[in-house]
Amino acid sequence: MKEFMLIFRMDLETAAAQPTQEQLDRYMADWMQWIGSIAERDLLADGGNHLAKTGCVLRKGSVHQSLYSADHESVAGYILIRSRDTAEAVEIASRCPILNGDGTSVEVRELAAPGRA
Fold this sequence. Notes:
By secondary structure, the chain is of the alpha+beta class. The chain has helices spanning about 20-40, 85-95; strands spanning about 1-10, 45-50, 55-60, 60-65, 75-85, 105-110. The chain has one domain (about 1-15, about 20-110): Dimeric alpha+beta barrel (Alpha-Beta Plaits).
């Protein structure tokens, strides 16, 4: 089995893109069910977390006191999973409830073996 990182991006900036409390409660219930289904199949690897909505970006000689975003999407969190190949990892990621929101995405990245990138 290989390990993959699922990187969750969402619009953390635009007020209209933020879920209501009711939506958030539903998203969390769906999220827990999805994560549980991955864990039940022993495909959830150690590692992963939600990230704070604040941070900074360093670029040659400067520090920007904001998150990196593209089209208002910033990294909101990640998990590590195990799967046979990229196709299976994409299939697992395709059921992620974060994809039900506006301005959201899931990036699937295979972890490189130590010493290889």
